[in-house]
Amino acid sequence: MSAAPPLSHNDVRRTGLAHGNARNKYLAAFDDLLVWAIACFGAVAAIALAAVPKFFLPAEDAVILFQFSRNLARTGAIAYVPFGPHAEGGLTEIISESTTSMLNEQSDAYALLNKLGAPDRLIRHAEFVSQTAARLLEELQSLGVPLNARIVEFGSILHDAGKIVHPEELHESGSLHEKSGEVLLIQSGVDYQIAQCCASHGAWSSLNVSLEERIVALADKLWKGKREADLELSVIDEIALRLNLHRWDVFERLDSAFETIAAEGWERVERSRAE
After folding, report:
1. DSSP string of the chain?
2. What is the pTM of this model?
3. How far from 55 is each of 41, 48, 58, 167, 182, CA to CA, in Å?
4. Are 81 and 193 in contact, with CB atoms under 8 Å apart?
5. Which of 16, 44, 90, 186 could link 86 by a cystine bridge, Cβ 3.0 to 4.6 Å?
6. pLDDT classification of 19: cutoffs 50, 70, 90
7. CA 256 and chain centroid, separation
8. What DSSP assignment string belongs to 181-229?
9. How many whole angstroms separate alpha carbon 44 and alpha carbon 73?
């Protein structure tokens, strides 16, 4: 069998070009496929971003929209909190009646609990926490601490409203009542700042919890004689900040006040059991 004739320089060149052209065709096809895949992914992502908020509104957003729509139907204004921002076209002189006139006196807060179906045990608990909060407010006001006493007064009464929805948590520990209480109060027309006390009294360590909400959480501890060091320090630090003082300038006085209130806790607990 005769050997194949050797390839000339031109033959080698033509063979190399043929292989190169084939490789370029494969790369071009791969590039086209990649561009198509990226385009499809982008289209799916755009559809998802447009559709998801419409079908999966967060619970908070749903509650806010519910309140907005009710305020608009009642008053012609979309005001979510007293003196808060209005939606475009809202009447600035009209504030939702639900946020201004619902809670004028503490008796209004108790009346709301009764209207929502709160059992006697929950009412008694609200009374003890409210009395403790009043003691704290008296001490803080004597120091000249700037704060919104209304949030503390009504928040201390209504903080456990969610236990109307989750009555099992009247007898055992649980946190389902916290967010449920906030939603329930907002749906009932209560100021959002007060309703927040339901969710924050168990999550007081969150960064966005106000001093007023922490005072409600502290009253919920001290009424039964429980000292919560981290919570107390967070309250003391915020008070020092508002008074432009150092922590230790107010620590001794406030710590003494907390101890005095907590020392009476056993008596309040006994009274709550006897009633």
Report:
1. -PPPPPPPHHHHHHHHHHHHHHHHHHHHHHHHHHHHHHHHHHHHHHHHHHHHHHH---HHHHHHHHHHHHHHHHHS--BSSTT--B-TT--TT---HHHHTS-SSHHHHHHHHHHHT--HHHHHHHHHHHHHHHHHHHHHHHTT----HHHHHHHHHHTTGGGGT-GGGGTS--SHHHHHHHHHHHHTT--HHHHHHHHHSS-TTSTT--HHHHHHHHHHHHTTT---HHHHHHHHHHHHHHTT--HHHHHHHHHHHHHHHHHTHHHHHHHHHH-
2. 0.65
3. 21, 10, 10, 31, 22
4. yes
5. 90
6. low
7. 31
8. HHHHHHHTT--HHHHHHHHHSS-TTSTT--HHHHHHHHHHHHTTT---H
9. 38
Which amino acid belongs to residue 29?
Answer: A
Structure-token match 């559709």, residue found: 51
Is-contact 170 121, C-beta < 8 A?
A: yes
- Domains in the chain: boundaries: 10-56, 59-97, 106-274
Q: Which of 66-70, 97-101, 250-254 has the lowest mean pLDDT?
A: 97-101
As given in the structure block, the two tokens for residue 52 are: 């998801």
The CA–CA distances, whole Å, from 86 to 167, 236, 237, 249 equal 36, 35, 34, 41
The residues near 143 (Cβ < 8 Å, ≥ 6 apart) are: 239, 243, 250, 253
CATH topology for the 106-274 domain: Hypothetical protein af1432 (1.10.3210)
Residue for token digits 């989750």?
166
Tokens of 96: 């939702």
121-147, pLDDT tens digit by residue? 999 999 999 999 999 999 999 999 999
The one-letter code for the residue type at 28 is A
